[in-house]
Amino acid sequence: MTETILESVQRAKQLLNAKELDVNAAELAMQAVTGKSRAGYFAALRDQLPEESRSLFWEYIEELLTGKPIQYILEEESFYGYSFEVNERVLIPRPETEELVFYALSRARRLFGDKVIQFADIGTGSGAIAVAFKKERPNAQVTATDVSEEALQVAKRNAQRNDVEITFRQGDMEEPLMGQTWDVILSNPPYIAEHEKSDMSATVFDFEPSSALFAEEDGLYFYRRLAERLAPLMNKRALIGFEIGYQQGEIVQQFLQKAFPEANVDIVQDINKKDRMIFCEIQ
């Protein structure tokens, strides 16, 4: 069957819409199979779709109709303007996490100027936070940890892909960082409570690694643990930053304020005006 690019995408969108799936993924799939930029895609909407491209496009759509995220199908996602490999061993980087990096970079400049800092990313997953921070602040000495060796292999490839030097350490959360002190520690740990699973999209919990999504203690376990254990690891002037669930700000703030009584602990909203980050500045 001969179809234009537009006709194929419209038909795919109808199928996705019928299953209440993201219809925009059809355009991303088409851009991938045709190798076109977004502008190039729109310019070519009336072009006939070659058979080879058509076949691959519908393979992608069949996968999308199972609920599989387009990022895992294409094995790629953009984060902070950089390209990352992603697969089902790691979470797909989100725009909210870009904001964590943005605000951390801003606060680090204010606290440390241009000096060389020791930076750690706990639970790095794809390496998105660590790589983006290193790209934006090249003189930072960056270390990234993850309990999953499979995730670390993805993160290592992403460091190579983006031409940055990062030290990777396997282990449980903060444990690989012991024996050293740090200027900046960031983490986007698992923070979803098990009871919230029913509210989530199936494309998330059916495909993304559950160990990177869910946490005990109503999603608060890792925040409490890190607040209790990071004090010996921080330099006298230091910055801790977490991504948080939008309802967790006050209690995570309490965890950090108890652990660091003299610190400034701020809850920061994301672009959607939801509590999404918390920063602890130790002076």
Automatic annotation (TrEMBL):
InterPro entries: DNA_methylase_N6_adenine_CS, HemK-like, N5-glutamine_MTase, PrmC_N, RF_methyltr_PrmC, SAM-dependent_MTases_sf, Small_mtfrase_dom
Domain of life, per lineage: Bacteria
One Pfam assignment: MTS
Binding site for substrate: 188-191
Matches recorded under CDD domains: AdoMet_MTases
Release factor glutamine methyltransferase N-terminal domain ranges (all copies): 9-74
Reactions catalysed, as given in the entry: L-glutaminyl-[peptide chain release factor] + S-adenosyl-L-methionine = N(5)-methyl-L-glutaminyl-[peptide chain release factor] + S-adenosyl-L-homocysteine + H(+)
This protein's UniProt keywords: Methyltransferase, S-adenosyl-L-methionine, Transferase
Entry keyword annotation includes Transferase: yes
Enzyme class: transferase
Record function comment: Methylates the class 1 translation termination release factors RF1/PrfA and RF2/PrfB on the glutamine residue of the universally conserved GGQ motif.
Similarity section: Belongs to the protein N5-glutamine methyltransferase family. PrmC subfamily.
Protein name listed in UniProt: Release factor glutamine methyltransferase
Species this protein is from: Sporosarcina newyorkensis
